Amino acid sequence: MKLYRYLALASIVVFASSGQTRYDLLLKGGHVIDPGNGIDGPRDVAVAGGKVARVAADIPAAQSRRVIDVKGLYVTPGLVDIHIHAYAGTGQRGAYSGDNSLYPDGFTFRSGVTTAVDAGGAGWRNFADFKDRVIDRAKTRVLAMINIVGRGMGGGAIEQRPDDMDAAATAKVAKQFPETIVMIKTAHYAAPEWVAVDRAIEAGKLAGLPVMVDFGTPWPTRTFEELITSRLRPGDISTHMYQGLQQLVDEKGKTLPYLLAARKRGVRFDIGHGGGSFVWYEAVPAIRDGWLPDTISTDLHAGSVNAGMKDMVTTMSKVLSLGVPLPDVIRMATSNAAVSIRRSDVGKLSPGAGADVAVLRLDRGSFGYQDARGARFTGNAKLVCEMTLRDGTVVWDLNGRGGEDWVKFYARPENRRTK
């Protein structure tokens, strides 16, 4: 019994002595925050057959084959990052359909992300290659937005061609892969016409999908205000909401009325931090006035992971450090994200759902955070991902909480290497 208690306090796996077990794994003693199911309090999470079996207080340890002590930690649904770039491996230079993208598994699980959405790297011409090259091989659940440009985010002139913006062809491919394609995307179009937005919305109507717009080049004849107040539909998403190109608050620090009107009619707003799309001089006053994101996302790519963005939990920590309550931050990265991509099978710890789980540690202190331009903000909160489960399997374990003490492990002869 003393050994049992020692192992539990050391946060390692405990094997139940009873042969009568109902669960494969039990996360015990944590604080569950599951906004989609209205849970915010001490709960245990039991897993069986890769599914969430039960979320309840004080589930007996003897009912599970493995028990992992997560006391003092927060247990949440696996995080849902709706804006990454994962179309890697093509060899295309300087493009998000190539070298700018990253294979997801090396960057998702360590940050608690179990579901990620590629933000339009591929269009109808090359989506099949992206699916075979990345989506079908990843352990991360990779979903996708299909770009209105047939060749996707090939960079430069490739993304500026209206003759390759085919709404019907885009919608046709989206309908071919309904389990994977969750949205239409337009980005990087630099000319003063509305053609890219209009055709993306047309494709969205044909496919029955929402549209995400990266509106990085406004013109007097093509304004951000017009985009969100009259062009986008309810459920469509404007990303890069604190990118430094649009005024968000007035001289008194109050959110501009047109933003509030757009949200009221159903337009959704996403962070999309990235390597150049999050600046403190917009984010700080806007968030402090209550102009909050519907979704927190990273815009993960080769240029953002080693800069100010870093990862999902760092991006969440920035919002948390600006005074947004932790349950709201978790909601933006779980159930809100699931609503945005219209996927009810992710973002919740519902019995019967795949056991995608993030175990997070909340540190309090003094932490430096950089925006996309390198400016520093000192925050008082930092989220750290201790463990991630994907379909009930531990895929990230920062401090070895899911491992057995090495002395006990190697005391069993079958675990020693033999010739």
Q: What are the salient characteristics of this protein?
A:
single chain, 419 residues, alpha/beta, TIM Barrel, 2 domains, eight-stranded mixed sheet, seven-stranded parallel sheet
Quick description:
The chain has 419 residues and is an alpha/beta fold. The chain has helices spanning 2-9, 105-108, 127-133, 167-176, 195-207, 224-231, 257-264, 280-288, 312-321, 326-332, 335-340, 406-410, and strands spanning 23-34, 39-48, 51-56, 64-69, 74-77, 79-84, 113-123, 141-147, 181-187, 211-214, 237-238, 268-269, 357-370, 376-390, 393-397.
List the helices and strands and how they pair.
Elements (H helix, E strand, L loop, with lengths): L1 H8 L13 E12 L4 E10 L2 E6 L7 E6 L4 E4 L1 E6 L20 H4 L4 E11 L3 H7 L7 E7 L19 H10 L4 E7 L7 H13 L3 E4 L9 H8 L5 E2 L18 H8 L3 E2 L10 H9 L23 H10 L4 H7 L2 H6 L16 E14 L5 E15 L2 E5 L8 H5 L9
Parallel strand pairs: 1-4, 1-5, 6-7, 7-8, 8-9, 9-10, 10-11, 11-12
Antiparallel strand pairs: 1-2, 2-3, 5-13, 13-14, 14-15
**Radius of gyration from the alpha-carbon trace, in angstroms:** 22 Å
CATH architectural group of the largest domain: Alpha-Beta Barrel
Name the quaternary structure. Answer: single chain
Shape: globular
Q: What's the mean pLDDT score?
A: 94
Structural class: alpha/beta
User: Helix share of residues?
Assistant: 10-25%
Ranges where pLDDT stays below 50 over 5 or more residues in a row are 1-18
Question: How many strands appear in the DSSP assignment?
Answer: 15
Number of separate helices: 12
Order of H and E elements: HEEEEEEHEHEHEHEHEHEHHHHEEEH
Would you give the CATH topology of the largest domain?
A: TIM Barrel
Number of domains: 2
Share of β-strand residues: 25-35%
Fourth CATH level, the homologous superfamily of the largest domain: Metal-dependent hydrolases
